Amino acid sequence: MAVSHDYPQDLDPRIEALVTEVIGRVADKWTMITLEVLTEHGELRFSRIAQLVEGISQKMLTQTLRQMERDGLVIRTIHPVIPPKVEYRLTDLGLTLAEAFCGVWAWAAQNVDRITAARAAFDSRSVD
After folding, report:
1. What's the pLDDT score for residue 94?
2. Residues with Cβ < 8 Å from 3, sequence gap 6 or more?
């Protein structure tokens, strides 16, 4: 069964490159989880994001948030207090991306049993 897409024949190569970059970045585990955390909890301090994104290192969280900021997905706000307070929140662009990925969660919920069964069948016949 083929899936048809309504892409124009003369698709702008910049769009193709952007889609490839964004999919690569957003498909990254840490970006997806960080996006989910900020969608669910709203504006958060770095340390709180680190607590909620279980298993992420400080370096990786810093890189992830910087890249998300560069792509326009998050806003970093520095409050002039001592010690400095830095908070992150999703932009409208980040929220629309989060909405787009809600479909992935719905798909996973609908297909978890089928995927589990397929994996079990594959694993049972894949004895190397």
Report:
1. 94
2. none
